[in-house]
Design a protein that fits this description.
Elements: H1 12-18, E1 24-33, E2 36-46, E3 51-56, H2 62-69, E4 77-82, E5 85-86, H3 92-98, E6 99-102, H4 114-120, H5 123-126, H6 134-146, H7 162-175, E7 180-184, H8 192-209, E8 212-216, H9 220-226, E9 229-234, E10 237-242, H10 244-247, H11 250-257, E11 259-265, E12 272-279
Parallel strand pairs: 3-8, 3-9, 6-7, 7-8
Antiparallel strand pairs: 1-2, 1-4, 4-5, 9-10, 11-12
This protein binds adenosine-5'-diphosphate and magnesium ion (MG).
Length: 281
């Protein structure tokens, strides 16, 4: 720097962080359980205001990737950046104000009511011990209404049906009032109508509130319909990433899922629609 004065060395991580755009970015990300690598060398960039679906076979690392992006796993290699700053250098509460994560299997403590569950979403804004203020209570009620569970506010979470429970958890994530929503299989175990209902809520949040959404979906046709971008994982690596039209092709489906499929058009939205005709082994 200057005439023999102390030089401030920036670490590689700091240098990389200074180049990161807004959004969630992973750079050379490796995640492992113990010494078992699960995610390897993943680079991705999720821009604000986008909806991304993560797809891939069982065990391909989708949940692990989301946990890494949500800072629940410490990278074995590389780093994750949230709005330009290394996520593991940001205080938990700071991260929780910007990013809500709904895990694949979420269990509520026994006896907790839906309203109490949703109120937990307010903790990054007020701390565990402080009482809810009027503003917090408004946010909770609004979140209950957004996913149509206001009438279930006093019901214990464990008594809800699968679809209602999933909506209650999404309401909790909404009460967190974050810019980013990471949802791991928000539609699994739901019947078709409830799947569409959940995805319509996600679409509305994106359109009306500008939320940035990353969700793991199993149904490729729903992924193509609701996400602007699809990321396909195979054995812990990204093997395809792009618009639904770029990713939902017979060749990609063979590579990612080892299936033979025809690709048609969704009659309503024009998005690709795949019909599986067999396995590709
Ligand atoms: N907590 C864990 N400890 C050890 N291995 C795990 C753990 N969670 C997942 N795995 C392994 O990591 C791999 C990827 O799992 P996961 O990310 O859950 O895949 P997906 O969500 O795509 O089905 C699997 O082989 C799984 O067995
Ligand atoms: Mg999973």
């Amino acid at each position: 720097m200057t005439n023999g004065g102390p030089t401030i060395e920036r670490t590689a991580t700091e240098r990389a962080a200074s180049l990161q755009p807004e959004g969630i970015t992973a750079s050379g990300l490796g995640l492992r359980y113990g010494d078992r690598p699960v995610i390897e060398d993943v680079d991705l960039s999720l821009l604000p205001g986008t909806v991304t679906a993560v797809v891939g076979a069982n065990g391909s690392g989708k949940s692990t990737l989301l946990k890494g992006l949500a800072r629940l796993l410490v990278p074995a290699r590389g780093a994750v950046y949230l709005d330009g700053k290394a996520i593991d250098r940001q205080p938990t509460r700071e991260v929780a104000r910007r990013l809500a994560f709904l895990p694949q299997r979420a269990d509520a403590p026994e006896g907790l009511t839906v309203r109490e569950l949703v109120a937990l979403g307010r903790f990054p804004h007020r701390g565990w011990t402080e009482r809810l203020g009027a503003g917090d209570r408004d946010v909770v009620e609004q979140a209950l209404r957004t996913v149509s569970v206001a009438h279930l506010g006093d019901a214990p979470v464990e008594q809800l049906s699968g679809g209602e429970r999933q909506r209650a958890w999404i309401a909790m994530a909404l009460a967190q009032e974050t810019r980013y929503l990471l949802l791991d299989e928000p539609t699994t175990f739901l019947d078709l109508r409830h799947q569409i209902e959940i995805l319509d809520v996600v679409e509305r949040l994106h359109r009306d509130e500008g939320k940035t959404v990353v969700m793991v979906l199993h149904d490729l046709n729903l992924a193509a319909r609701y996400a602007g971008r699809i990321i396909a994982l195979r054995e812990g690596r990204i093997v395809a990433s792009g618009t639904p039209d770029e990713v939902i092709t017979p060749a990609r489906l063979r590579e990612v899922f080892r299936i033979e499929a025809r690709v048609l058009r969704d009659p309503k939205r024009g998005t690709p629609l795949c019909v599986v005709v067999g396995t590709a082994d």
